[in-house]
Every structure is written in structure tokens, then in C-alpha cells.
Amino acid sequence: MTQDELKTLVGQAALHYVVPGEIVGVGTGSTVNKFIDALASIKDQVKGAVSSSEASTARLKALGIPVFDANDVGELAVYIDGADEIDGRGYMVKGGGAALTREKIVAAQSRLFVCIADESKLVQTLGQFPLPVEVIPMSANQLVRQFAALGGKAAIRQKDGQPLVTDNGQYILDVTGLQIADPLAFETQVSQWPGVVTVGVFAHQKAGVCLLGGAAGVKTVTY
Ligand code: 5RP
User: Which atom of ligand 1 is nearest to the CA of 82?
Assistant: First the structure.
């Protein structure tokens, strides 16, 4: 099976976690796009979605799925999103699509995080994928130095020769060279640095379930 087919498979499998009559939290990325497409097939059974990015909002609306403001709804039963890396404890690195801040907000608003991913995302230790960190632009160079002190090399993410600007009007640093052995402690530490909006380690908002696509089909891992 191709990676695209695996994404379709886990996107469809995630429908099992959607609670009829409720609002579902929806992440961002190519795997989530498959979930959104699958969700459209049962759209009459859900009230709508809270979305984690402008891109997902546009896709949801184009398929006729109502999108609610996070502030207008209470706790959500489930949040469905992809990951750039996931370890054996359900800790993740996210933000490859630059949507990490809203992703963490909707994840925090939800009782269960269901991660949908193909097996290539499974790692022993987080840090092989460049760690995305959303930052206030004026803090970028100071934060580059702070990551260097931890052994990381941070660079401002570019788009068309300019710093990429997120849905929230901020920059993304991508940090290579880190081995994140203690994701909870790392997330707590970096989240406190002035200028950090959101660090892409999802340890406090880890996955409760991962639907992992591989040669043998979809494996359900519970943490
Ligand atoms: C976006 C994310 C995505 O969940 C992550 O990048 C995985 O994306 P994809 O499903 O395209 O591999 O965190 O900010």
C-alpha cells in the first residue's frame, strides 16, 4: 500500500471515534484531509467540527460540514489529528503544517486525542523530525540561541523566500539535533521561554489512541 492509501485507511478508521450528534475536533494535514473527506460521508450524523487551521476550515466548509468557533462550544468528546512523530507512550511531535498552536488548543478542549498516522511516524525517541516551535517574531533570534544551548539548531521556517507567517501571525522555528528523552519536562521547560507561543511537543496533550496504518492494515494502539 502507498503512504497515501495508508492515510486514507486511517482517516476512514477514525470515523469509529466520532460521536453521533456531537461536534468533533479536527486537526490539520494530509492525513486529516483524508479524515475530513471520510467525515463528509457521515456529515448528517454530526453537529459539526471545531477546526485547528484555516486550511482545515476551508476543506470542512467546502464539504458542507459546519465549523464552530472553539469559544462557542464546551468540551469536545474527541479530537482527531495526525502527527509528525509518535513514540511508544503516545507523546508526539506536531506542527509540520504550522498549525500546532490551534491544534494544541483544540486537543486541550477534547477528552480524547485520536492520532491518525502511518507507521513511518513511529519513533523510539522524539527529535528526529525537526521540532516546530511557534514564536513571537521579535523573540526569534534569542530563542535560536536558547535552543543552541540545548544542543539544537533552530531556523526560521521560510515560504517563498520570506519567513512563513502562521494563521496566528507568528513565525515557526524548526529545531534539529534534539533528542527529547523526557517529553513532559521538555514541553514544560520550553513553553516557559519568553516569546514561545507553542512548542510542537505534545506530551501534556498526548494521544490516548493511535490508529497506525501499516502493511497489515490499521493497528489500534491505546496509551
Ligand atoms: C500540522 C500537523 C500535522 O498533524 C502533521 O504535520 C502531520 O501531517 P501529515 O498528516 O500531512 O503527515 O501537526 O501542523
Answer: 4
Q: Global pTM?
A: 0.97
Report the atom number in ligand 1 closest to the C-alpha of 28.
1
Q: Where in the chain is the domain with CATH 3.40.50.1360?
A: 3-123+204-222
The residue nearest atom 10 of ligand 1, judged by CA position, is 31
Q: What H or E segment, with its residue span, contains residue 163?
A: strand 162-163
List residues near ligand 1 (CB under 6 A). 27-31, 81-84, 94-100, 103
Å from CA of 165 to ligand 1 middle: 17
Residues labelled as active-site residues: 103
CA-to-CA distance for 136 and 151, rounded, in angstroms? 22
The domain defined by 131-197 folds into: Alpha-Beta Plaits (3.30.70)
CATH for 3-123+204-222 is 3.40.50.1360
**If DSSP codes are grouped into helix, strand and coil, which group holds residue 106?**
helix
- State the helix-helix crossing angle for 30-40 and 54-62, rounded to 10 degrees: 30
The fraction of the chain above a pLDDT of 90, given in percent, is 100
Q: Whose CA is nearest to atom 1 of ligand 1?
A: 97
- Specify the pLDDT at position 191: 98
Which pLDDT score is estimated for 129? 98
Cell of 24: 468533533
Distance in Å, CA 202 to ligand 1 centroid: 13
